[in-house]
Amino acid sequence: MGFPRFERPKGLDGESSPNLYVANCGPAVGLSFDTIASVFSTFGEVNGVYAADESGTRVIVSYIEESSAQTALKALNRRPCPDLGGRFLHIQYSIMQLPKQVNTNDSIPVSLVASELNIPGLHLWHDFVTATEEEELLAAVDDRPWKSLAKRRVQHYGYEFLYETRNINTRESMGELPSFISPILERISLISNLDNAANIVLDQVTVNEYPSGVGLSPHIDTHSAFEGLIFSLSLAGPCIMEFRRYSEGVSLPKPDSITDNQVENPNSSSNFIRRAIYLPPRSMLLLSGEARYAWLHYIPHHKIDLVKDSAIRRGSRRVSFTFRKVRTGPCKCEFPQHCDSQS
Description:
Helices cover 14% and strands 33% of the residues. It is α+β, with helices and mostly antiparallel strands. A 7-stranded antiparallel sheet has the order 8-18-15-22-13-10-9. Strands 1-7-2-4-3 form a 5-stranded antiparallel sheet, covered by helices on one side.
């Protein structure tokens, strides 16, 4: 699957666009997307910065307002930019188009904030960690051994998650959680709008590394395995996460029985409600209450996601840290139809 395509506007030479094609700018010349976004945001709210191609030296800067793009082009085109290493930028207007390989027939609106989804118990915090902390966390796990699954790699801390049973063995502790995640645990305990966040002792962590295009089958984390707060920190690359709530009386499909085609074409069933949210790098997602116990969550197998009419390419990898509390007794939640302890 290729990169999103970008074209000059058709029509009069003076026609503009909220998207700017910026050459001599990108990771290959030592400029991160965050740095580029920071500089261009001085001219208006930036919707996103995307790779224009595989060169690493050309990007698309997408603004919310067309006037912001006009101001930025006038200020920066063919001039040295001190905040970008003094590089001369070559800028022109661009129209972002989805590549032909992207099938949007089954797409649904993707929200940027959790409140838009109307799923009780779902929360999302942007920039939960800094870019420096992100680099340190990635370096820490890359220094440790990975376990290879069919399409991704994993690490487990505290207790190993057993994919065969979708559960854990509470009698086989792997020891204390590593010190490099202690700052994250402390930050979770300081979340002010969650009454029990400060009291829960998270004791199990699973680190997943997803290569570009690899997703996750729809599932609900086993009720009897973990307590009611599940935190997921996204690092390195973005993705969208979708949620399904099945109608009463409908049997939930088993994750291993769902094919990629069913995941990518979920509109074929009218037995569930769908929601979707965009997870940017360094964001923290919380599943609690109904969101944790009654909604299936999954990551579509895409290399490019459609978010607010923009094509966002996933990174070469996405690494997630999932923090959970191991349950020591049966689950007594309010959703017995989804609960293995009560079924």
